[in-house]
Design a protein that fits this description.
This protein is mostly beta strands. The chain contains no helices and seven strands.
Protein backbone atom coordinates (compact mmCIF):
# COMPACT_ATOMS: atom_id res chain seq x y z
CA UNK A 1 0.00 0.00 0.00
CA UNK A 2 1.53 3.35 -0.98
CA UNK A 3 1.98 5.87 1.84
CA UNK A 4 4.20 8.97 2.06
CA UNK A 5 7.86 9.02 1.12
CA UNK A 6 10.36 7.18 3.33
CA UNK A 7 8.04 5.38 5.79
CA UNK A 8 10.06 4.58 8.89
CA UNK A 9 7.84 4.10 11.96
CA UNK A 10 4.61 2.21 12.50
CA UNK A 11 2.17 1.73 15.37
CA UNK A 12 -1.20 0.02 15.66
CA UNK A 13 -4.04 1.45 17.71
CA UNK A 14 -4.82 -0.92 20.64
CA UNK A 15 -8.25 -1.83 19.22
CA UNK A 16 -6.60 -2.72 15.89
CA UNK A 17 -8.80 -0.38 13.84
CA UNK A 18 -6.04 1.97 12.64
CA UNK A 19 -2.34 1.88 11.78
CA UNK A 20 -0.15 5.00 11.94
CA UNK A 21 2.91 5.26 9.66
CA UNK A 22 5.52 8.03 9.96
CA UNK A 23 6.82 9.26 6.60
CA UNK A 24 10.21 10.85 7.20
CA UNK A 25 11.16 12.39 3.87
CA UNK A 26 11.46 16.18 3.87
CA UNK A 27 8.85 16.14 1.10
CA UNK A 28 6.43 14.27 3.39
CA UNK A 29 6.92 15.02 7.11
CA UNK A 30 3.58 13.44 7.89
CA UNK A 31 1.77 10.45 9.33
CA UNK A 32 -0.44 8.25 7.19
CA UNK A 33 -3.48 6.84 9.00
CA UNK A 34 -4.67 3.51 7.61
CA UNK A 35 -8.05 1.95 8.33
CA UNK A 36 -7.32 -1.76 8.83
CA UNK A 37 -10.86 -2.78 7.88
CA UNK A 38 -10.72 -1.21 4.43
CA UNK A 39 -6.91 -1.15 4.03
CA UNK A 40 -7.13 2.45 2.88
CA UNK A 41 -5.51 5.71 3.95
CA UNK A 42 -8.15 7.75 5.76
CA UNK A 43 -6.01 10.71 6.86
CA UNK A 44 -2.64 12.36 6.37
CA UNK A 45 -1.46 14.36 9.38
CA UNK A 46 1.37 16.86 8.95
CA UNK A 47 3.87 16.86 11.82
CA UNK A 48 7.38 18.21 12.47
CA UNK A 49 10.53 17.60 10.43
CA UNK A 50 11.80 14.04 10.00
CA UNK A 51 9.18 12.13 12.01
CA UNK A 52 10.97 8.97 13.07
CA UNK A 53 8.71 7.03 15.39
CA UNK A 54 5.14 6.90 16.64
CA UNK A 55 3.60 5.55 19.84
CA UNK A 56 -0.07 5.18 20.72
CA UNK A 57 -1.43 5.87 24.21
CA UNK A 58 -2.77 2.58 25.67
CA UNK A 59 -6.37 3.81 25.59
CA UNK A 60 -5.89 4.77 21.92
CA UNK A 61 -6.85 8.43 22.42
CA UNK A 62 -3.54 9.98 21.33
CA UNK A 63 -0.59 9.29 19.06
CA UNK A 64 2.83 10.72 19.88
CA UNK A 65 5.28 11.33 17.03
CA UNK A 66 8.99 12.01 17.62
CA UNK A 67 10.25 14.59 15.11
CA UNK A 68 14.00 14.15 14.88
CA UNK A 69 14.97 17.35 13.03
CA UNK A 70 12.43 19.55 14.83
CA UNK A 71 13.57 18.29 18.23
CA UNK A 72 9.97 17.98 19.40
CA UNK A 73 7.00 15.64 19.72
CA UNK A 74 3.69 16.04 17.88
CA UNK A 75 0.53 14.88 19.65
Amino acid sequence: MPVGTAPIGIAIKPDGDFVYVTNSSSSSNNVSVINTGSNSIVATIFVGNLPSSVAIKPDGDFAYVANQSSNNVSV
